[in-house]
Amino acid sequence: MAGLSMGAMETKTVTLRNLDIFAWVGGFSSAPNTKPTAELVPDPDMAKRQLKLLYVSCGKKDGLIRISQGVHGYLKEKAVSHVWHVDEHAHDFDHWKKALFLFSQLIFKPTAK
Hints:
The protein contains 5 helices and 4 strands, in the order E-H-E-H-H-E-H-E-H. By secondary structure, it is an alpha/beta fold. The protein has one domain (2-107): Alpha/Beta hydrolase fold, catalytic domain (Rossmann fold), CATH 3.40.50.1820. The protein has a 4-stranded parallel β-sheet with strand order 1-2-3-4, sandwiched between helices. The longest helix is centred in the C-terminal third of the chain and has 15 residues, at 93-107. The radius of gyration is 13 Å and the shape is globular.
């Protein structure tokens, strides 16, 4: 599941609380959640075991970058594997197009046999 802006906020809210169902998660330019990241990921060890990919991205010029930086910081502190992508864009189509392209390269990557 992936989303952008408000959709990224919803994606985090739904997926990170239901890691038994969702293992591939992407959030682009996330809007603020009503709950802090520590409540969205209350069990970092479970997140480490269950998540196949957690992709967090935001543009440097995005007024909401502090939201994504906070998520990235919490995940890094708890050693939860994730991809942190920051580019030169704002809260705009240029960032979302680039982030979706990079995210899709990771979720559709062939696995070794």
